[in-house]
Amino acid sequence: MKLNNVSPEEKAYLMGLQSQSFKEDGLAKCSMTNLELANKLNISTKTIQRHEKTLYEKGILHDIKLKSKDEAGYNKIVRAIDLAVVCQAILFVDDKINAIGDELLQMQNTDKFLIEENKQLRKKLENLEQQLYNKGVLQNSFEM
């Protein structure tokens, strides 16, 4: 299954869900409630419901009934992501994030270099202006 029909937001949600999951039998399983997950991922429960609805429809997300029971006596249900299905898409997104991070770091280094070079050029300009002023070639702009 290709994940071409999965939006970037859904992929981000899958990554967040996977970060809160335990891995077992090729699945990423999460037993948190929507509220617990929303608090962990810093998103709303409505956002979770919206993404999960489409991910269930696309066959990416599944429910698994556990043998253990909850407080009300019902079988616990966990969300499960088939890692084989999403692995390539997540790795692709992760590679893109790493590439962007590398580009940002390079830009920050270039920025620091240009700031330092600008300081040095300003000092040279001040020295040249001072030399020209001392020779009488340049007037002080405040004396005009």
Entry keywords:
144 residues; alpha+beta; Arc Repressor Mutant, subunit A; four-stranded antiparallel beta sheet
Summarize this entry quickly:
The protein is α+β, with helices and mostly antiparallel strands. It has 4 helices and 4 strands. Helix 2 (34-41) packs across helix 3 (45-57).
Tell me roughly what share of residues is in helical segments.
Answer: 55-70%
Q: What's the arrangement of strands in the largest beta sheet?
A: 1-2-4-3
Q: Return the average pLDDT rounded to an integer.
A: 84
Report the strand count. Answer: 4
Number of helices: 4
- Helix and strand element order: HEEHHEEH
How much of the sequence is in beta strands? 15-25%
Low-confidence regions: none
Structural overview:
With 144 residues, this protein is of the alpha+beta class. It has a domain at 8-97: Arc Repressor Mutant, subunit A (Orthogonal Bundle), CATH 1.10.10.10. Helices cover 59% and strands 17% of the residues. It has four helices and four strands. The protein has a four-stranded antiparallel beta sheet. Helix 2 (34-41) packs across helix 3. The longest helix is centred in the last third of the chain and has 52 residues, at 83-134. It is rod-shaped.
